[in-house]
Design brief:
This protein has about 100 residues and is an alpha/beta fold. The protein has a domain of about 70 residues: Histidine-containing Protein, Chain: A. It is about 50% helix and about 15% strand. Strand 1 and strand 2 form a beta hairpin. The longest helix is centred in the N-terminal third of the chain and has 23 residues. The termini are far apart.
């Protein structure tokens, strides 16, 4: 390599190393999301006065996503509150639909 090639590659190499090191520090432990997901599901099952066992629960980077159908606004609020109270949850995104039970 000539001197001019070294001058071009050195800053590029420094930038790549910085991105790799910085990116490694910003990762979220996947076990945290697994724990959050499991705990939200367990707490929803414990809500005996409301049937919240069939709701979808996904956790990504400490954001909990709730999906599915509930029978009332109260059940929807209860599911969202349960998810928010789990340690480590930063945010809850709910796409829960309120559907009355067919009679």
């Amino acid at each position: 390599m000539t001197v001019s090639h070294r001058v071009v590659w050195r800053p590029l190499l420094v930038m790549i190393v910085a991105v790799v090191i910085g990116g490694g520090c910003a990762t979220v432990d996947p076990w945290t999301d697994t724990r959050i997901e499991s705990e939200v599901k367990a707490r929803l099952v414990d809500q005996h006065e409301a049937n919240l066992t069939r709701l979808g629960v996904v956790s990504r980077e400490a954001t909990v996503y709730l999906s599915g159908a509930v029978e009332s606004e109260d059940q929807k609020a209860k599911a969202e509150t349960v998810a928010k109270t789990v340690p480590g949850v930063k945010r809850v995104v709910s796409t829960l639909e309120v559907r009355s039970r067919p009679e």
